[in-house]
Amino acid sequence: MVVQFGGVTAVDDATFSVEPATITGLIGPNGAGKTTCFNVISGLQRPTKGRVRFRDQDVTSLSVDGRARRGMGRTFQRLEAFGSLSVRDNVMVALDINRGLRGLFTNGRKDADALLERVGIASYAEERADSVPTGTARLLELARALACEPRLLLLDEPSSGLDEAETDDFGSLLQELAASGVAILMVEHDMDLVMAVCQELHVLDFGRIIASGTPAAIRQDRTVQEAYLGYSEEVVA
Fold it and tell me: What would be one Pfam family of this protein (predicted)?
């Protein structure tokens, strides 16, 4: 894909794939074009050139909600919860929309609570979304995305605001989701988490993919070290 804003090329011929039942990382310095790639994939930004294919179909012309109905779910780098609603109601909104589109009407409260339990924030169900800690709000956005039963889950810096124990639990949850068949694409700056849970990494720098491979291969890549990870004798020895 190519994305240009006037004379600025934000994404420059970046091509990659995400397989079902895997966790793929999209990493790189701030401003490298990672969130722009997410916007193109999810339909918020039309590419200047290139196509987006999802489940063997070209979805480039589909709207955001059209892609969501086909199984894309997303969280955002900047929190996008409905602040005046409770944590539970945020999830119930997503459940009601998803199931209403399919003519299904079930116990939304019970299912919302089950999703909050799954991501580990059930104790915050009654709290206003704009009053909870940042890490909890991140997990709320994940629960809301899961309410749409995604086949592809796009997570933009999902561990921001989580402490070490919460991050460990979050990594385990991602692995469980992938094991159930969900394809996960994650933008994340916590390299310990990325290296622990991802099977494949793509590294962006100035809008271009400069390396792709396993975490072990990326850690050893001198170009990636210079652009993002930093040089270490221990890493390259």
Answer: BCA_ABC_TP_C
